[in-house]
Amino acid sequence: MLDNAIWSRDITNKPLPPLVTGLPFLGSSLELSSNSLNFFVKSYHDVGEIFRIRAAHRRFTVLAGSEANQFVNQTGADFLSSKDFWQDFAKELGTEELLISLDGDRHQQMRRLLQSGYSRNAIIHAFPETIQVITNLTDRVESGQRLQVLPFLQQIICEQLGMLLADYSPSDYCADLVKFLKTALNVMVTKQWPSFLLYQPSYRRAKQRVIELARLAIAKNRDRTSQRDRPNLIDDLIADSQKAQPMLSEAELIAAAIGPYLAGLDTVANTCAFMLYALLKNPEAMAKVQQEVDLLFQNGLPKAEQLRGMSALHGAAMETLRMYPVAAAIQRTAIAPFTFKGFRVDRGTTLIIATTVPHFLPQFFPNPEVFDIDRFHPPRSEHKQNGAFAPFGAGTHLCLGNGLAEVQIMLTMATLLHQLEFSLESPNYQIQAINNPTLSPRNRFYLQVQRRK
Ligand code: HEM
């Protein structure tokens, strides 16, 4: 359906959306760089489902609410492009084309090439190895230790992604990946950091090492003589490069090999950090999850099919994705004019689709500020309402790793909670979420840890 009461191609006599004015000169810059999601939810209530904002010299039109998500899901491809938002970052990797920066047929072709490597199956067949990565790191934790949560989780997730998608351990390169991605994304994608940071020697070195990591992983997989049971993402990329007319150039191959860290490292590590916090603040939910987790490991290493029955763990993961959606919004350019909810969007407008605003609307999720792990199970199934739940985005670029991410979060949290006991440094501790560039806990998130087994 192209035109309906919510959106239309016809912009005749339609006004521009209302403007949220903000501060003189700065506009809404401060709200956007601290916790943009709170700002989008507040503006949705104050102004409506479409509004304009300013951030210093930049201008955006924001679409928010379940109907904005339905619009992106149903007809987004006709009106929206992600190229402008990602092209500087792609160039930094020496290419014009990243999966996330492509539109139209080329995007669909690239998605087909990568989808098996990014699928849920990538982790389903590797439970023992995924758990072993965690055990290797928890073995170094001492009882009574004060643990800085985010770097610890980043190390775990980075190693898992390397092992699952590339059969190559990033080990010492993990710090380079974190430095490179944080700086490059904050400067070139969200544009909240100044561009001189790209000239820092520490950044340039991290970038060079990240490219070296990609080359090493590709070389290791290319040199492999024996056949693997199930090709991983790098195998699929190499198979493409060996065709008479490969889809990807060598630079695109290297950029695609960095893709899993670009997409999965911060997102999964931050989600696990928020989930730990939310469970520690909600002891009843923690008790239910802990009971399930201990049963899971009762007879040795868990099997994939056992995760299906873990309703408390699954509910806690879903509720964390709802309340702490690390990728709270997506950014696009309008490639054709359209009307949304009576207001005009001109071609060339920079758009923010605040996909996760409905997570905080009581008509979809009653008492949205309460961490309630039973929302997702029948008969409630609150997330199944059209356009209401979008932690993995919407439309053609919907997260390709969403199944993998869900299992990775559940298995990582189950293993951590089985092996370690965490406690907040103070029961009154409140986590502070900031955009960095995904929604992250501020760096100073520490927990006390005791070994359980
Ligand atoms: C909690 C974890 C995660 C969240 C919240 C998340 C969220 C998202 C979102 C919102 C998008 C769409 C971005 C846009 O439209 O601009 C996206 C895209 C993507 N994600 Fe995830 N993601 C997560 C984990 C992962 C993991 C673990 C992987 C794989 C290792 C992954 C792979 C991808 C890929 C390849 C895309 C690009 C899809 C495309 O452009 O067609 N994600 N993700």
Would you give an account of this structure?
The model has no long low-confidence stretch (mean pLDDT 95). The protein has a domain at 1-94 and 328-369: Uridine Diphospho-n-acetylenolpyruvylglucosamine Reductase, domain 2 (2-Layer Sandwich). Helix 6 (127-138) packs across helix 15 and helix 12 crosses helix 15 (402-419). The protein is of the alpha+beta class and 453 residues long. It is built from 15 helices and 14 strands. The strands form four sheets. The protein has a six-stranded mixed beta sheet with strand order 2-3-4-10-7-5. A three-stranded antiparallel beta sheet has the order 1-8-9, with helices on one face. A three-stranded antiparallel beta sheet has the order 6-14-11. It is globular and about 65 Å long. Bound molecules: protoporphyrin IX containing FE. Residues 82, 99-100, 111, 118, 161, 259-260, 263-264, 267-268, 271, 326-327, 330, 391-393, 397, 399-401, 404-405, 408 line the site of protoporphyrin IX containing FE (HEM).
- The protein's oligomeric status is single chain
Largest sheet: 6 strands, mixed
CATH topology of the domain at 1-94 and 328-369: Uridine Diphospho-n-acetylenolpyruvylglucosamine Reductase, domain 2
Please trace the helix and strand order, writing H or E for each element.
EEHEEHEHHHHEHHHHHHHHEEEEHEEEE
β-strand amount: 5-15%
Low-confidence stretches: none
Return the CATH class of the domain at 1-94 and 328-369: Alpha Beta
Q: What ligand molecules are bound, each kind once?
A: protoporphyrin IX containing FE
Number of helices: 15
Distance between the termini: 57 Å
Strand order of the largest sheet: 2-3-4-10-7-5
Radius of gyration: 22 Å
CATH architecture of the domain at 1-94 and 328-369: 2-Layer Sandwich
